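Collaborator request, handled under Task 6.
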Amino acid sequence: MLRILAMVGDAQASSHVRTALDGYADLVFARHRAELAHALDHDEPDIIVLGIREAADATIRLTVRETIERRRQRIEGERASNNCRQGCRT
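Structure tokens returned to the collaborator:
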């Protein structure tokens, strides 16, 4: 099941997201930047959904970009480690 972290503007938007993805994803909603950062630190989601206002906030964008970069680095490190196990000599 996909893990989705959503930060959308209001209860109505949250309801639409929940209705659209009910049963298809493990949804977590963040109401403010600190809650978003906390959720990202504890469980790396597969997808991050931001509302228009949230995406316009520079600190929220930075938090999300840092999370994406950490994930990219981790994946690249895992790939390098797997490649080394398959063909490197130690």
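The cover message to the collaborator said: "The chain has one domain: 2-87. Residues 2-87 form one domain. Please let us know whether this matches your experimental observations."
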